[in-house]
Amino acid sequence: MRLVILDDYDLASEWAAKxxxxxxxxxxxSADRCFTLGLPTGLPRAHPESYxxxxxxxxxxxxxxDPANAHIxxxxxxxxxxxCQAFEQKIAEAGGIELFxxxxxxxxxxxxxxxxxxxxxxTRVKTLAKDTIVANARFFGNNLSKVPTMALTVGVGTVxxxxxxxxxxxxxxxxxALYKAIEEGVNHMWTVSAFQQHPRTIFVCDEDATLELxxxxxxxxxxxxxxxxxxxxxxxxxxxx
Amino acid sequence: xxxxxxxxxxxxxxxxNCRILRDHKLQRDDLWVREGKILNPExxxxxxxGYADERVDCExxxxxxxxxxxxxxxGHGVDFSQASDDAGSGVSFVAQKIxxxxxxxFCPTLVTSPADVYxxxxxxxxxxxxxRHGAGVLGLHLEGPFISVEKKGAHPEQFLRTFRSGAGSLxxxxxxxxxxxNVAMVTLAPELSGSQSAVRELCRRxxxxxxxxxxxxxxxxxxxxxxxxxxxxHLFNAMLPFHHRDPGIVGLLTSDQVPAGRTVYxxxxxxxxxxxxxxxxxxxxxxxxxxxxxxxGRHTLGQQVIEIQGLHAYxxxxxxxxxxxxxxxxxxxxxxxxxxxxxEEALEAAxxxxxxxxxxxxxxxNLDYGSDxxxxxxxxxxxxxxxxxxxxxxxxxxx
Lengths: 241, 399
Hints:
The complex is a heterodimer.
Chain A: E1 2-6, H1 9-27, E2 37-38, H2 51-58, H3 80-93, E3 99-102, E4 124-127, H4 130-136, E5 150-153, H5 156-160, E6 164-169, H6 175-183, E7 201-206, H7 215-223, H8 225-228
Chain B: E1 12-16, E2 19-22, E3 25-28, E4 31-34, E5 37-38, H1 41-47, E6 54-57, E7 62-65, E8 67-72, E9 74-75, E10 78-79, H2 87-97, E11 103-110, H3 115-121, E12 136-137, E13 140-143, H4 169-177, E14 183-188, H5 195-204, E15 208-211, H6 218-227, E16 231-232, E17 265-269, E18 282-285, E19 298-301, E20 304-309, E21 312-315, H7 328-339, H8 343-350, H9 352-357, E22 375-378, E23 384-389, E24 392-396
Parallel strand pairs in B: 1-6, 2-7, 8-11, 11-12, 11-13, 13-14, 14-15, 15-16, 16-17, 17-18
Antiparallel strand pairs in B: 1-4, 2-3, 4-5, 7-22, 9-10, 19-20, 20-21, 22-23, 23-24
Helix pairs in contact in B: 7-8
């Protein structure tokens, strides 16, 4: 894996953004060649805090993506199982996920693959763990009873099939999960650990997220920053390709 | 074009590089318009998989809802209170000119006039939508003749009227005006006997009632509000001042007798000459007269001759103010500068509040999804750069 450690949240975000940009540009996407970006999925559509609103306000409205190319799992679909299978199908039809970008839960989950999820699972409905509900309460006025208890999610197996996986981890509250994910063994109680068996994983984090790691690990990867930085410097442009 | 046509295949315009007034704040966001209305881009993206046909680069402008002037007596040589055979084109001429000031809807106002002026003019002025031809007419504002002699201001005394007592106030209204069909608002003095029933009659017909040119005490004003009155015409001007033992009409602002769920709005002429402004349910009006937009000299306002001295408009030969020659955007700028209020508050006083007063805020006066796309594009100094009605550009600076 690559472990890229930046000083703070803003620097970590910027590094990750530049990396994604360079990856997209190098791929040379065209009308026939889609750069498929996978993002974790979630809550039922109807709510202003739904993933549709979140993705619109934070991503889609700022870019010129063709709406037909934006696929979000629909928690309001009539048949959720069919919805999940259709999603897997769409990924296959697009040629597979080129780059999967995700975060990590305080309980070490990737997407909504809660502790105990099969490490070869596919897109499906999951019941959320207490930790996740508590973590999401801030989007629902800190009212636990208003947080949805179920979510549609890509599976661990689905993400493992991506050509590259990028995990963004910031904040001290995620530090223990990061430790479990990269310094302990592969374990379905900390599903992010599955990526130890993926050929191309990159973790981007800030200083606070490294608080539970061994000094040796942190020093090793910090020492590699000059190599890592070549991935984002120079920032590429479609015009130059 | 770019949409799965599940809702509509009309073209979609996206205004980019702008700050829009939404939820009482200026926000860096794009504004989307389709078929003359503000469009929800998130629904467009997910439900229709649509995107814009045309992008308009606003170069950093502020986009505010189009201004609404509920008190304007004329402008550019046109006086609405004249018994003209072609009142309609006078209104249209002014409607076109005020697009330059960012006004997209207005209420042509008639001052106290003899019956034949009302009977002639009113049938010629109809409520209609704005467009390239000019700002939309939301209805007439009839200021007078049922007002107080003591506070007539520039209104001609010989044409003031009272209500004949008894239940005849509808007859009085019809006798004076001829018809109430395209009337949006009437200003009257609530101390006149019979006026309470007039207020109720007008409200029943969906006409907003405003109190002004009056010596009413607070209790009479409160009665009028209970009967349905919802506006105060040019607050402080032509009414008794706020006295600590009887606050008069001005006291409505602090009265606890306003029924729950009702709001009393008040108009201010923020031209720097009529008053020191205050905030809240403030509606900016111009009270502009025919001389607005013209060089200094003598002009008419109904039956009176008005003389312009600098920025002041007086009844000729007196120091009685009569209307203003300010434009709406001047009022917005002056109000902001003089009161120290925020940009959002100044803009809402000229758009959202008049719309709420006239009961049209479900489609005008704001940039909510579904509202009419009447827009005013302004620079940081609140100077108008362009005006749009129903999503169509109707005026641009330099054009």
